Amino acid sequence: MESDANSKRGRFMGKLFGKDRKGLSARDGQDLNNFLRGPSDTLTTAHAAPQMLAKLDTSNARRYPNALEVNAQPQPPSQPGLQASLSIRSRPVSQVRSRKDLVVRFADTFPEVIGDGGDECSVPTVEIGKRKRAQSAPPPPLHMKKVAQLQERERAYSDAQQDDFVPPPVRRTPTSFSVSESSPPAAAPIPTLDPDPVPPPPPPHSSQRGIHDISVADIPAVPAGTPKTSRFLNTSVLSNDDKRKSFIEINQAKQRQAEGMAFAQAVRRSASASSEHEWEETRQKLVGPGSPTDTRASAASSAGADSPEPHPRKQTLESSPASTNTHNSTSSPAFSQRWPSMREKPRLNESPTKASATVPETPLAAMDDALSIFTSRTRHLFEPFRSHAEAVKPILSCLPDDLARAALWWFLKGRTALEISIREQAQTPQQKGQVEASRQQAYADLAKAYWLFDEVLPEVMGTKSSPVDAEVQDVGQAITSQLRKLSSSMKRNGFLPPENPMPSQAIDESVWVEYPAISQDVILLLWGSRGGALAQQRTVTGMPLLAALPLGDTADMFCFGRYFVDVFLMEQGAESQPLHFPCFLSITRYTKQSTLEFCLASQDGSVQFRIQSNKMTGPTWEDVKWRAEKSALEIKLPRGFALAVKCRPQDFKLLWSMQDFSTKALATLQPRKDEVVVFRSALRSFQYIESSPQSATFPRDPVRNCEVGLFEKIQQEYSPTGQRTYHRGFRLAVLTGPTTKMLSAVSHMYLPHIPVQFGFLRGEQSEPALLLRFDDGNTNGRMVMAFGDEPERLRFHSLLIGTAVEQDEKVYSEVPIVGYSIAQNARFEPIKGFSQFPWSRVKIINEDSEDEIPETVLAEKLKIVVDFKCGTITDRVNVAPGELKIRLSVKDKNSLSIMRPPQRDMTIALSETQISKQTPDDMRKALNFTSRSPSVRALTFTSQRNLHEFEEALTGFKVLFDGTAAAFAISRRRMVVPIYKKWEATGSRLQVVQSENIIQVLVFFEDFHHGESMSFPLKPTDIFEAITRNKLVGIKIDDAKFPLPRMPENTNSEESADDGAFVSLDLPEIPGEHDDITILFESEEERDDLIRCLPAPVKGSRMSKNFGK
Asked: Locations of Low complexity compositional bias (predicted)?
């Protein structure tokens, strides 16, 4: 001991500075005897000298005269004032001393056991004492008079021979709430100091220790709130070592005190007006500012030199340092393993200054530090939480699921209230007060969640033998993670709780929400059961905790928001007495489904109600009625019950808009009244690029796993021939997939009057992709769709442009062509744009039929597909009887013209990489023209054989004969006299066609003033005769039945002129004439070919002998 006169150091220092060491022992014994001696019978009064009274300073009077001033600076001994004060003990005193300036205090610390066993113990007594001191709780910090030695202790931290040591914080007398020592200590979420450090190595011998080697272990323990006592009962607080300091040592102490002012300022207590001045040694340099202490109720948060908090905060502290070791006794091993960052405390192997200089602060460490500040500023509310919770039901009787659900409840409520209070803009002082009050309540609610999981749940699990349920573990990890993020955000934006303790009078400290008592069958109804209680007890199960009260998105679920609502359960006939259930309404959607769900959940678990789209699992959206005037949702339940969900008006509007938007977005992938689904698939990726950069209809970046649907628009009409169906274009809809949180949908029409512009691409992973342009008038842009494989892309593309061949369809003709054009009529030039295309082939697609040639009239699946190098033309031939008319060119034997009435089902597709910029506009004009007026399509084939094959597939009539007649004459008898007049045309195109038993003769004239075309049937009853005239050979049809060639009624009408130039095979004109018809050819071969096609034998022809064989 340093003050022991028998030690070497004491004898050495006494020789240098001790002037009164000789009479010290005798005088100390005499002082003790005088103090303990009973009162004398005679009154002896010792008056002080008059000159000493003038030096008393009553303004600095203290409760304890011998207590050292905290801010007192040591002065050199040359100053008269200090010399006079220090020389009081050296003045001669009388033999009989009074009890002036003597104070007796009993030490509050436990007796120190320096050995056990005595001589019989095999371990040396010195070693036992060192071991006891190492295992005991670290003593409290020094009085302020030791502040000069603070820098020396910091040096001792970094000394390799000294073990790391951090004393616990100073303790104050509780001023507000008392903290029960039986409750488990709150653990900080960041690594804290070990309450049981490794025993330090034995200190060096006392003879080798100087004033700079003083160990903290040599300082006696003084509990907080008690005066500083001397080392012995008969020794003054002012030690003799202080009186023996030299001038150099005093100046060194002064410098060290000045250097440590910043550190001491963080723990100085200057608010009290009493003479007691305390200070606390913090751990700011070890774990950063604002970190919680090891004890369950830490000391007031330090206000260091770099802390933004202006005033230190007063908190309740526990009175025993041994409580720092009570943590592990209340937490179960299974619970401690769940959050190692909250339970494990790393050992100290380096000095705090070195650690802070070498280890950078990570984002996780910053979040942990923010959470530490939050918990340290709300920890004083934990005991009121416990009191309120115990008043409802014992905490140890609570189930872990109930505690986890309550923690989720308060976290959601606190975070929601905090967000609302931050968003609100207070204008008046009253509004500011309300916002501040709601923010204080939000802090308290968040503290409830932390308290329930950090203290209550470990305490409850400590009484159970079963491990913590995995679901409860997931809840704990989720709450801890969310609290870290929220605290970090509050710290970053300056919304952490204030340093000063929040007033508990204005805070709702209740933990358990009150709910009405209901029976088990009613609980089943509130869990979504549709049947009776007995039938559903085995099938209805509660929802997972994080699904009923979701904190955010999970791996298999998205959360779009939570709202606090009031749920009322009403029974038919007792609507005026509803049962009230405060609940949270969560908007969620699972990643494997596309529809939204509304989930209602109460704190006690009695309400776990989902509104979804599956009728087999519970109530659906069809059972919900939106009451805008009441801002409520009404849900019909079985057995005469009903549920009313009351919301705030703004929340009701938001819920309605989200559900309405979701319903409309999902409806884009459903066929409408006049639509048929032709394609449905999931895209590997989809990118939507609008021309307007401000548009936010769909994300501009590629989105994976989108759903695409192609719908054919159908128009149905009722006619005398029956119901008819017409193609009116396609609608393309794309919806983000279930794995994408933000729901987006686009829908565009591809109508027949607009050409389809496409392009074949490859994606980032070489997947086949298709580019499509869209133009709806208001919006235009491009879409890039990546498919799973090449056949899927080709399938979608062929459906969109109308070239797909379905299972019930067949290609009846596919022949090459050399030309295709669309003209206003047969005499006009073709529309601009078609002549530049390199034509490839044409094919006829029609319904697959058992007959050789299917129906071509009223055929809804008959279409002409023309392929060229940079696109296709799909001409749907859905015509009524008599609407399809054809004409053969007299000069070009390989040309065929088709006349069509106005149509709105033609599709032109163009590859945008192979066409000019003007081509889409030209095609658009052509499509607009064909939809408004009759038009003529002219096709040029490579041979007559290809022409006949195409004609047969289009009209259903097989070509039996196709040739050019040198003369075609019609004999007409005059009305009054029996004189015949002939109408004769030269160079006519003649064709004989047959469909089943019907044989027709098609005649097309050129420069014939009586008409341009005619057709008449041939029957087996007709009389045919072979004739020869002027080197021309031919046949004569006696008394043939035929209509005259038609002349246009109005020559100015283009439609009438074209109507006379084309003939209809399916609906020929009724014969009105019966005269002779003569057909002459230049060669006998052509005549013989015609004779082979006639339905009856020909007189005078050698081929008539073989007829019928």
From this structure: 173-185, 264-274, 291-307
Across 336-361, average pLDDT: 37
Domain count, the chain: 6
- Side chain identity, residue 572: Q
Residue with tokens 């299974």: 334
Residue 479 burial (C-beta neighbours within 10 Å; 0-12, 13-18, 19+): buried
- How many of the other CB atoms lie within 10 Å of CB of 75? 14
CA distances, 312 to each of 265, 302, 315 (Å): 10, 6, 10
Do 719 and 843 fall into the same domain?
no
Count the neighbouring beta carbons within 10 Å of the beta carbon of residue 672: 11
Cα–Cα dist 825/898, whole Å = 10
The string of pLDDT tens digits covering residues 307-334 is 333 333 333 323 333 333 333 333 333 3
For residue 204, is pLDDT > 60? Answer: no
Show the tokens assigned to 264.
């001491």
Torsion angle in degrees (nearest 10) through CA of 910, 911, 913, 919: -10
Asked if residue 899 lies in contact with residue 1062, where contact means CB atoms within 8 angstroms, the answer is yes
Say whether 1099 sits in a helix, a strand or coil.
strand
Q: Per the structure block, which two tokens stand in for 935?
A: 């038009």
Alpha-helical runs (H) found in 245-344 = 247-259, 261-265, 284-287, 333-336, 340-343
Domain containing 432 equals 363-506
Of 1082, 1086, 1091, nearest in space to 1031 by CA: 1082
pLDDT digits (tens, 9 = 90+) for 565-583: 999 999 887 778 899 999 9
- Three-state DSSP class for 717? strand
191 CB neighbour count, 10 Å cutoff:
18
For 639-658, how does the pLDDT look when each residue is reduced to its tens digit (9 = 90+)?
889 999 999 999 999 999 99
In order, the DSSP letters of 660-691 are HHHHHHHHTTS--TTEEEEEEEE-SEEEEEES
Question: 382 and 256: one domain?
Answer: no
Q: Which amino acid is at 1013?
A: S
pLDDT digits (tens, 9 = 90+) for 450-489: 999 999 999 998 888 778 889 999 999 999 999 999 999 9
Q: Is residue 49 part of a domain?
A: no
Q: Does an H or E element contain 655, and which?
A: helix 649-667
Residue 720 exposed, middle or buried by CB count within 10 Å (0-12, 13-18, 19+): exposed
What is residue 62's predicted lDDT score, i.e. its pLDDT? 44
Mean pLDDT on 177-186:
35
User: Which residue type sits at 339?
Assistant: W
Residue 81 is given by DSSP the state: H
Same-domain status, 752 and 848: no
What is the pTM (predicted TM-score) of this model?
0.65
Give the mean pLDDT of 847-876: 91
* pLDDT > 90 fraction of the chain, expressed in percent and rounded: 48
Give the closest residue to 590 by CA, choosing from 617, 569, 570: 617
pLDDT of residue 982: 82
Distance CA 1095, CA 1040 (A): 13
Dump the DSSP string for 812-864: EEEEEEEEEEEESSTTSPBPTTSTTS-EEEEEEEEE--SSSS---SS-TT-EE
Cα separation, 987 vs 24, in Å, equals: 157
Domain CATH number, residue 634 = 2.30.29.30
DSSP letters, 426-470, are --SHHHHHHHHHHHHHHHHHHHHHHHIIIIIHHHHHTT-SSPPPH
Residue 966's contacts (CB-CB under 8 Å, 6 or more residues apart) are 986, 987, 1032, 1080, 1081, 1082
Report how far Cα 128 is from the mean position of its chain's Cα atoms. 62
- Within-domain flag for 546: yes
Pairing verdict, β 768-775 and 557-571: unpaired
Cβ contact 316:175 at 8 Å: yes
User: Tell me, what CATH number does 938's domain have?
Assistant: 2.30.29
- Phi and psi at residue 339, to the nearest 5°: -125, 80
